[in-house]
Specification:
Elements lengths: L28 H10 L9 E4 L6 E3 L9 E3 L2 E2 L23 H5 E4 L3 H10 L8 E3 L9 H5 L1 H11 L4 E5 L8 H9 L3 E6 L5 H7 L6 H13 L4 E8 L8 H10 L4 E6 L6 H12 L4 H10 L19 H17 L13 H4 L9
Parallel strand pairs: 1-5, 3-6, 6-7, 7-8, 8-9, 9-10
Antiparallel strand pairs: 2-3, 4-5
Keywords: Iron, Iron-sulfur, Metal-binding
Protein name: PA0069 family radical SAM protein
Length: about 350
């Protein structure tokens, strides 16, 4: 049962201090009382889109336990507001809070398609899958207005370059025409996150995301068009969605996913404080139980930063989750394989299709 001071439509319930900043911003009680007496809103809870102009867009991923080598993010911050999102911490690098700012101050990279084209046309670049997005969702609500992800897909198609997508938004079906063209040459793989089959759970965990029904329908639509889909059952949170593993695996498999993956929740950096505040306001009756179970998976802490362990956890609860995942894969994904994307075509298209006639 949610507490009375729960902020609807958002994941984070506060703006916590940015560890890189000296000054602290807080709302004082006298200011809140002034707003109340004057009939004004102290916080209008609106999303702002702010253009930024990076010099590069493709990032090399050095982490040994992340399944990608290169990523790019058309947007920083994410209006989906997933309470557990590891990307929240990256918003502090831009001078914002990992809390509400992450969901409401969205940084827009309009130059992303041009920067991408420059990168994959460079003489030193050798084709390797670039993933949209390794940090924040490339199909979050901002994409409806700015269409940066679509423009980037057009670049990948033009140069026959492999691309992966990670999203939990059915908006990607808007670009089905491009995805189908990429799939003809095995240049596209899609990862769709499905965290729960319960809409009540989704609404509090991921308040501004596509419904579970639409995500499953997206998996089915992509699969029917020969676009391979990996279902990401992530994160698994003990006491919240850990009991759904088999049901989730069956649902995504039945809708056409060819593989599944999972991570066990870890609350690194500022996320521990944000999640703890959120769960006490959202699920106060089981808040401490859930927090203690997460700690039991990470050696008594809400976070474990060790490579190879941090996304898997250890201890009895983690072992039980791993056993369920193993069973789910054996039962619902036997003989299914997510294909390796094609890196052979790009070199011939690096300077555009005219190279075919030389």
């Amino acid at each position: 049962m949610k507490s009375n001071d729960y902020l609807k439509g958002r994941g984070a319930q506060q703006n916590i201090h940015n560890r890189f900043l000296k000054d602290i911003h807080e709302q004082r009680d006298d200011f809140l009382e002034f707003c109340r007496l004057d009939g004004e809103e102290a916080d209008r809870n609106k999303t702002k889109y702010l253009p930024i102009f990076p010099k590069t867009i493709v990032n090399k991923v050095t982490s040994p336990d992340v399944g990608m080598h290169y990523s790019m993010n058309p947007y920083q911050g994410c209006e989906h507001g997933c309470i557990y999102c590891y990307a929240r911490n990256s918003h502090e690098f831009w001078g914002y809070s990992a809390g509400l700012d992450f969901e409401r101050q969205i940084l827009i990279k309009k130059d992303a398609p041009r920067l991408l084209e420059e990168k994959i046309r460079s003489k030193s670049w050798k084709a390797e899958t670039i993933v949209l997005s390794g940090n924040t969702d490339c199909y979050q609500p901002a994409e409806r207005e700015f269409k940066i992800t679509r423009a980037c897909l057009e670049v990948f198609l033009k140069y026959k370059h492999p691309v992966g997508i990670i999203t939990k938004n059915a908006l990607l079906l808007r670009d089905l025409d491009l995805l189908k063209e990429l799939a003809k040459d095995n240049l596209i793989g899609v990862n769709i996150s499905v965290t729960s089959l319960s809409e009540d759970t989704r609404r509090i965990l991921e308040p501004r995301t596509t419904t579970i029904k639409k995500r499953l329908e997206s998996i089915q639509m992509l699969s029917e068009n020969n676009i391979p889909v990996n279902a990401m059952l992530a994160p698994i949170i003990p006491g919240i969605n850990s009991h759904e593993i088999l049901d989730l695996a069956k649902a995504v498999s039945d809708h056409g996913a060819v593989s599944m993956a999972f991570t066990l929740v870890r609350l690194n950096g500022a996320i521990g404080q944000i999640f703890t505040d959120w769960i006490h306001k959202t699920l106060p009756d089981r808040a401490e139980k859930v927090l203690h179970q997460i700690e039991a998976c990470h050696g008594g802490s809400l976070n474990d930063s060790r490579f190879g362990v941090r996304g898997k956890g250890d201890g009895k609860i983690a072992e039980h989750i791993h056993a369920m995942v193993h069973l789910a894969k054996a039962k619902y994904f036997k003989d299914k394989i997510f294909p390796k994307l094609n890196t052979e075509l790009h070199e011939r298209y690096k300077v555009g299709q005219l190279s075919l006639f030389q």
